[in-house]
Specification:
Strand order of the largest sheet: 1-2-3-5-6-7-8-9-10-11-12-13
Number of strands: 13
CATH superfamily: monomeric porin ompg
Distance between the termini: 45 Å
Structural class: mainly beta
CATH architecture: Beta Barrel
Amino acid sequence: MENHALRVALLVVATASFAPAAAAQYGHGPDHHRHDHHFPHDEELGHGGQGPHAEHPHFTHPIVTESPLPEKQVRFNAVFAQEAGAEALELEASVEFALTPNVGVELALPYTFVNPDEGGAEDGLDNAEVALKFADYRFGQRGVVLGAGVELGLPTGDAGRGIGDDRVIEVEPYAAVAFRRGDFEAVGVLRFGIPLNERSSEADDVDLEIAADGSVLYHLSPRFAVLLELNGATVAAGDANGESILMLSPGVSFAPLEETGLRVGVGIGVPLTEDEEVDWEGRLMAILHF
C-alpha cells in the first residue's frame, strides 16, 4: 500500500530514538545522584530487585515487545488470532537464563493449532527460537538500558501443513533501548530478519525484513500497569518488497500474588495496515522469575 514505507519508517525512528531523548531530558533529575539506581515498584517486576543486576533499573515485561534485560525466568504465551479464512491458536513456552548480569540466553518452543474455514484442522510444533541477548547498563543512573542480541528461528515446523517452516532458518539481529523514570517505562527494539536456506521457489520473496517494536507502560499501582504497544515490519529487499504490517496492541500487566515472581499480561492487537491478514489477536502472557 502507498503509505506503508512512511508508517514503518516513522515507527522505526520513534522506537529507536525516544529513550535517549527522554534520558537526556531527565538525566540530571533527583534519580541521577542515587547510588543504588533502584526505581519505585521494583518488587512488582517479580524479582524484587534481587536479580544479578539488582543495582540497575528494572523493567516490566511488555506483552509483545522484547525486554532488553537478561533474566532468569520461564514464560508462557498464548495468542489467539482471527485470520482471513482461519482461526489460529499458538501456545509458547520459553525459558531464559542470565549467564551474567549482561548476557542471557533464551529458548522458545511454540505449538500452533490452525482451524481453517475450509478443510481439516491442523496442529503441530511451530518454529523454535534460540536467542542470545546482551545488556549495557552504563547509563543506568539515567534510567536507560541499552540492549542487543540475535535470534535464530529454527525450521521445526511443517510448511506443508501451514505451520511454521521445515527448511528456512531466520537470523534476526536486533538493537534495543529502554528507559524508566518513576512509574513510566518505554522500550524500543529495531530488528532485521534475514532468511537462509529457502526453497528455490520462494528464495526471492523476502531477502531482508526490517521490524520495529515500541512499548510504553505506566504503573497505576505497585502491582498494576497499563501499556500500549506498536509493532511493525516491512519487507525491505526481495520480490515482496514493500509489503508491511503494523499492529496496535493495548493491554494490562499485573502481579496477581504479592511477594512472588509471577507476572501476568493480557492484551489485544488490531491491524493498522491492509497487508495484515489478521483481523485481531488476543494475547495472554505469564512470567515466573526464579
